[in-house]
Design a protein that fits this description.
The complex is a heterodimer. In chain A, the strands form 2 sheets. A 6-stranded mixed beta sheet of chain A has the order 2-1-3-10-4-11, sandwiched between helices. A 5-stranded mixed beta sheet of chain A has the order 7-6-8-5-9. Chain A is of the alpha/beta class. Chain A folds into 2 domains: 165 residues, D-Maltodextrin-Binding Protein, domain 2 (3-Layer(aba) Sandwich), CATH 3.40.190.10; 111 residues, D-Maltodextrin-Binding Protein, domain 2 (3-Layer(aba) Sandwich), CATH 3.40.190.10. By secondary structure, chain B is mostly helical. Chain B has 2 domains: 261 residues, MetI-like fold, CATH 1.10.3720; 178 residues, MetI-like (MetI-like fold, Orthogonal Bundle), CATH 1.10.3720.10. Chain B is 76% helix and 0% strand. Chain B is built from 22 helices and no strands. The longest helix of chain B is centred in the middle third of the chain and has 40 residues. Chain B is globular. The two termini of chain B are 36 Å apart. The chains are: A alpha/beta, B mainly alpha. At the A-B interface, helix 1, helix 3, helix 4, strand 7 and helix 7 of A face helix 4, helix 7, helix 11, helix 13 and helix 20 of B.
């Protein structure tokens, strides 16, 4: 009995390999190693999970179709539910083109030699975070005009979003530190990490945390949707601008998809226009008017802040 | 009579932990999110039924089940092989000495000492976004756990038949198989079924941390407060867990009922195995399992010094202290919940199914998600983290407790009832008393598991090692990750040793009756090998 069990257990070890060989033969593509990173025909795109999954699936489904049409290669969206998993997947060559945040993008490029910044949205060169607070704790707050006024957050229960979020953690923590507020100054000796911008809003609105920091775009879209109870939660401060989200591609795309592919890909992204109906849908879901070419040097600021706060080693 | 009461006190004494918990609770409630909680439970009756979401929920469940099946099977294979090899009897028979077995048993404590989530995060670094990561991450610690139980089982069997066969000149492998195989089977089968339930829970939890499946759907819809969507996944998961648990219980009862037809069990067992194997292929297809990546190049991040002296200088006493405090509170509360609730509500017949339902929800909600829900009404800190862990584990302990109760001889309780003793007292004196030692011993083992699990509730700001670990991982600071893993491993190794000693002490004092199908409590409560 046991022999069968063992034999069966390892059978599938062969199966995917067989299936893959067949697929490769059908498409007349030489079959290399089994590792998907060696896949020559499929462009795998992904994104950090900063929105609800349904929206991500819709958005990247549309974008995949668009890119497939423009580039003539097969495009597949691979959902990832953790910020650092997206970085790891990119480093290991499981993902070809990823929509990263400022911090995760820098982390990914540092760990992946040759990776290139392709584009950002028109809003990303000067992105903002919003500090929000629960009404019961911040009703009579002195308006925040400069970094020093951030001292009012000392001793409060404060939450960031995900540990690796640029707008929900890195830059807010940096601005707080400029105002002399350390992470250990919050109630309980440490901030919370809600995991996402939506969760931060809900937790501050409920009062679990007295204050928090969120992505301005997510805050605005929640206001528009009416999911924020304005009698419970206040917008306290809009941070100074900093560069955030951007597209990063692997450095070997030209080698795998043909010379000039990276340029073509970049062009496909920055030529999305609201005048085309499908493209307009994509841009709207991204919350952008259009994508623009982004210089990698712009993210030097994020890198130095990341190093200061220990998020980049 | 006084002496006989003692174990029951052991059973109910941990309930005292609820006094400080309840006393502090009013100060820890902010109450701002009752509306959200109401929305959450309100949404239970109206899960989202849009076709696209149902499809997502179904595929999420299928992925989780596939991960659970594969990791379970692998862990059984690893566990049975390693368990046999680490049994001194086997080692003695094959090699003529027992030190290889002793050595292997100690080595196996290491993979056990890390939670499957940590294995997942480590393997993710080396292998990338591969479905096989989730399977292996569960199979490693589970395999080591199964090995321990198999080995303990084997060593606690009477050795005389085996020795007799050996003396009669039968070669060792045949003698082992004939003398010990049949008596080992019931225990291994019963425990194996239980491991499948555990694997399903672990597969769900790993999803919460990014390895796909229903856990991922649940986390994302809860975090973005889409409760109707969350309940679609929750109901689907509840149905699956209910069917699985009931199916396994049914088989247990069927196979060990007195007077079962000879050979029936064997045939059904064979049929079940064939069915499972047939399921494994679609499961592998669905997950797109690629075992060959295990043999391929591993992509460890090489750009950093993995050992940095300053990374080891953390405020360890504080970190370890808060981790242990969290463990103790959660373990005591989880342990005491089932007996206490049963005792309080035993006179009402309706309460039993209600408690069972509550237990099912407790088991299926991964603790980090419970913690997130608790934050809607509690201030962040130790309390919601402890409650989340306690709730989940109370569901697991409660199920084993009920199962143990039902396996008890009903006659003492009936005698007491006839003699006019109140139903609560009769339950306490008869059934609880018979079960107490085994349940206590299992509780000690569960405390060990809870210690490992503290890592998953780091997000609610409970402090402790989990927070440091998640922060280090998100900074890709491997030099910081290493010391935390080492400290975690050390803590669980010490915990395991203490739990083992406590269990052998308990079971020596109150020997368990054997016979019939071993309940899981008896199985799991078995003492580890006496240290030679």
């Amino acid at each position: 009995m046991f022999v069968y069990l063992i034999a069966f257990a390892f059978l599938p070890l062969q199966l995917p390999a067989i299936a893959e060989t067949k697929a490769a033969q059908n498409q007349q593509i030489p079959h290399q190693a089994q590792r998907p990173s060696a896949n020559k025909i499929l462009l795998r795109i992904s994104a950090i999970p900063d929105q609800n999954p349904e929206k991500l699936n819709r958005l990247y489904g549309l974008l995949s179709d668009e890119l497939q049409e423009k580039l003539g290669v097969q495009v597949k969206y691979i959902p990832v539910i953790d910020y650092s998993a997206a970085v790891t997947g990119f480093r290991n060559g499981d993902l070809d083109l990823v929509w990263f945040g400022g911090l995760t993008g820098v982390q990914a490029r540092l760990q992946t030699p040759g990776a290139k910044v392709l584009a950002q949205r028109d809003v990303d060169a000067a992105f903002h975070s919003i500090f929000i607070g629960n009404v019961n704790s911040f009703k009579g707050i002195k308006p925040i005009r400069g970094f020093n006024d951030l001292q009012q957050f000392k001793g409060k229960r404060f939450t960031f979003g995900s540990e690796s979020s640029t707008s929900g953690r890195l830059m807010p923590q940096y601005f707080l530190s400029k105002g002399g507020v350390k992470n250990s100054d919050f109630a309980g000796g440490a901030p919370g990490f809600s995991g996402s911008h939506d969760a931060t809003i809900a937790l501050v609105q409920s009062g679990a945390y007295e204050a928090g920091a969120v992505n301005e775009q997510v805050w605005q879209s929640n206001l528009k949707k009416g999911t924020v109870d304005r009698t419970q939660v206040l917008a306290l401060w809009r941070t100074p601008p900093y560069p955030d989200y951007h597209w990063i591609a692997q450095g070997d795309l030209d080698k795998r998809f043909g010379i000039g592919f990276t340029k073509k890909l970049q062009k496909a992204l920055i030529s999305l226009r609201p005048s085309n109906q499908q493209q307009q849908q994509i841009l709207e879901l991204f919350g952008a008017r259009q994508f623009v070419v982004a210089p990698a040097s712009q993210y030097g600021e994020i890198e130095s802040v990341g190093r200061k706060l220990g998020k980049i080693r | 009579m006084q002496a006989k009461f003692a174990p029951v006190f052991g059973l109910l004494l941990p309930a005292l932990v609820f006094l400080p918990l309840l006393a502090f609770m009013p100060f820890e409630i902010h109450g701002g999110g009752w509306g959200l909680i109401a929305n959450f439970f309100g949404a239970a009756l109206r899960p989202s039924l849009t076709p696209s979401l149902l499809a997502t929920a179904f595929s999420g469940i299928a992925i989780t089940l596939a991960v659970a099946l594969w990791s379970w099977l692998l862990s059984l294979l690893i566990g049975i092989a390693a368990g046999l090899l680490s049994a001194p009897t086997v080692s003695q028979a094959f090699f003529g000495c027992r030190w290889p077995a002793d050595l292997l048993r100690r080595v196996l404590a290491l993979p056990r000492s890390l939670h499957e989530l940590l294995w997942g995060l480590i393997l993710l670094q080396g292998l990338g976004l591969q479905p096989v990561v989730a399977v292996i991450a569960i199979a490693i610690p589970y395999g080591a756990l199964v090995a321990r139980v198999v080995c303990d089982q084997l060593e606690s069997l009477p050795q005389e038949p085996f020795r007799a066969l050996r003396v009669a000149g039968v070669p060792s492998p045949a003698a082992l198989l004939t003398a010990l195989g049949p008596s080992l089977l019931p225990g291994v089968l019963s425990y194996g079924g239980y491991r499948l339930e555990c694997a399903l829970r672990s597969a769900t939890l790993l999803g919460v941390f990014g390895l796909g499946g229903v856990g991922a759907d649940l986390r994302l819809s809860l975090q973005s407060l889409q409760f109707h969507e969350a309940w679609t996944s929750l109901w689907a998961l509840a149905l699956l867990m209910f069917l699985l648990e009931q199916g396994i219980a049914l088989l247990r009862r069927r196979w060990w009922q007195p007077g079962a037809v000879v050979g029936q069990r064997g045939r059904e067992l064979l049929l079940l195995f064939v069915l499972l194997l047939l399921l494994l292929f679609p499961a592998a297809q669905l997950l797109d399992l690629q075992w060959q990546v295990l043999l391929g190049p591993w992509h460890w991040p090489m750009d950093q010094q993995i050992f940095q002296w300053q990374a080891w200088q953390q405020p360890w006493p504080k970190l370890v202290g808060s981790t242990l405090l969290l463990t103790v509170i959660a373990a005591l509360a989880a342990f005491a919940a089932a007996p206490l609730l049963l005792l309080l509500f035993s006179p009402w017949a309706l309460m039993q199914p209600l408690l069972r339902g509550l237990g099912l929800i407790a088991r299926l909600l991964p603790p980090p998600l419970t913690a997130l829900l608790l934050l809607f009404v509690f201030k962040p800190g130790l309390l919601p983290a402890a409650l989340a862990l306690a709730f989940h584990n109370a569901g697991i302990l409660g199920r084993l407790f009920l199962e143990g109760l039902e396996a008890q001889d009903p006659r003492p309780e009936q005698a007491l009832l006839v003699a006019g003793v109140s139903s609560r007292k009769a339950l306490l004196m008869a059934r609880f008393n018979g079960l107490a030692a085994g349940y206590l011993a299992y509780g000690a083992y569960r405390a060990d598991v809870i210690l490992r699990e503290t890592v998953v509730v780091g997000l609610v700001g409970a402090g402790g090692l989990g927070v440091v670990l998640l922060e280090a991982l998100s900074s890709f600071a491997w030099a910081d990750v290493l010391p935390v893993l080492v400290v975690y491993a050390l803590l669980t190794l010490i915990g395991e040793e203490l739990a083992t000693r406590y269990r052998s002490f308990l079971l020596h004092k109150h020997p368990q009756k054997e016979g019939g199908a071993p309940t899981r409590l008896q199985l799991l409560a078995k003492p580890m090998l006496e240290r030679a």
